């Protein structure tokens, strides 16, 4: 998603506060609808406006929850395991996962999760870039 406000929020104060070392302009150059920022426990810390448009859930509902609240009966355990394993190694991961909108409709979500490292190479947060898969 090419959103100057989202890029400014992530690339500005949050990035400086946490000493993140990532090229946000490059990461955000791909078209994504939703940006989700979580802490190390994967609790949602911030979402962009595209989150509500894509999922139907307002930001104030999502903040404080884990993204797993979007999952349901058709969400693949294998995909969830691959995501966990990749994140546990400190690497970025891209997968297509079945999520559910607020209205109950399932959708395939192309998700790229980027671990955000500080200047000491310690992961402080995760940034998920999401869009509906074609």
From TrEMBL:
Keywords: Chromophore, Flavoprotein, FMN. CDD domains: PAS. InterPro entries: PAS (IPR000014), PAS-like_dom_sf (IPR035965). It comes from the Bacteria. Residues 36-128 form the PAS domain. Gene3D superfamilies: PAS domain. The keyword Transmembrane helix does not apply. SUPFAM superfamilies: PYP-like sensor domain (PAS domain). This is PAS domain-containing protein. It comes from Algoriphagus ratkowskyi.
């Amino acid at each position: 998603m090419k959103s100057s406000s989202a890029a400014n929020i992530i690339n500005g104060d949050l990035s400086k506060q946490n000493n993140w070392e990532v090229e946000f302009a490059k990461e955000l150059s791909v078209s994504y609808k939703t940006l989700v920022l979580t802490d190390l426990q994967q609790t949602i810390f911030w979402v962009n406006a595209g989150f509500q448009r894509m999922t139907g859930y307002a930001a104030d509902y999502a903040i404080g929850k884990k993204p797993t609240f979007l999952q349901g009966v058709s969400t693949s355990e294998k995909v969830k395991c691959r995501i966990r394993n990749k994140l546990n190694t400190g690497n970025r991961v891209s997968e297509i996962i079945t999520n559910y909108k607020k209205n109950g409709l399932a959708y395939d979500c192309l998700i790229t999760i980027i671990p955000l490292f500080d200047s000491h190479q310690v992961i402080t947060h995760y940034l998920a870039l999401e869009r509906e898969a074609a």
